[in-house]
């Protein structure tokens, strides 16, 4: 479980994150939504300890990220906004390298890698250098690398961005499989179809603040519209109007 309590982060005079609080629970998929510049990526970077908040607290399975960031990283699998693959390495080598960084013994590394290869349908690219990979191939490799240490909590920043229809469908199945295993899955997306199909709970951020934290059905009732995209637009419009 990931708990976010009153997070703040400013860059000079700009308040990127201004008191964000929410909980992403085990066995659920939580969507983090917001327009560009809303503070989503900054929030995620603080969750996976790439940035330190100016104020507030992040707890992962009850562990304070400020007190023991190494323990928090061990419990997280992260797909960042920058995929960051080593281009001269093959997909297999990228995955194995991160397994060794986590101190995973060779037999366990091989078993875990094979599970992820099958789950992500990436056996055909396993021994190719990642330089020249398509967007979908890069994402699959980056996710396998992020999950090779079998974390219970998964953070994915725009996991389906730029993917074709078939790869998006397989990614959707994979995300649901992680949920069924009892993992905590938190992902950001601009694609309302993905959010509607996957999310148990949706956290909407605008101007660095949480403006909604509800189930999809509750968001529809709250805004009085049936379409989730229209509900999102209405929430953002209300938040912008209040801030004006």
Explain what this protein looks like in three dimensions.
- It is a single chain.
- By secondary structure, the chain is an alpha/beta fold.
- Helices cover 41% and strands 25% of the residues.
- The protein is built from nine helices and ten strands.
- It has helices at residues 40-47, 69-74, 91-101, 106-120, 135-147, 165-180, 192-198, 216-223, 228-243; strands at 2-11, 14-24, 28-33, 55-60, 63-64, 76-79, 153-157, 184-188, 201-206, 209-214.
- The strands form two sheets. The chain has a six-stranded mixed sheet, sandwiched between helices. The chain has a four-stranded antiparallel sheet with strand order 2-1-4-5.
- A hairpin with a 2-residue loop joins strand 4 (55-60) and strand 5.
- Helix 8 (216-223) packs across helix 9 (228-243).
- The longest helix has 16 residues, at 165-180.
- The protein is globular, with a radius of gyration of 18 Å.
- The two termini are 35 Å apart.
- The model has no long low-confidence stretch (mean pLDDT 89).
